[in-house]
Amino acid sequence: MIKRILATTALAVGLAAALAPAASADEINDNWYDATGQFVGVLEPGGISSGSAYYPEAKPIAVTPWGTTRLIECRGDGHYIVKQCRREGHWLVQVSQYPVREMWVYNPF
To answer: Per DSSP, what are the bridge partners of residue 84?
Structure first.
């Protein structure tokens, strides 16, 4: 009886694995890209002086020693892949997001 149950279970698992469709996902771009234009520095026009409230046209604030004068690289889109950003090999850490304005802080360590 046990052999028959195990054989039936193995057959069912084998059929399910054979008939299940292969996972298919759209190709996701996981490459680093230049995102400097997507950010605004703290003291630049459009930074803190324009308020910290979220509105659709608001660019995320980058709190770094250089503002947006140096390259900021990001990967991911924040929806399907977690968005990660860096500057010169150091991470930018996201400290706030919707419903307040998105803010990224430079981590020198």
So the answer is: 75
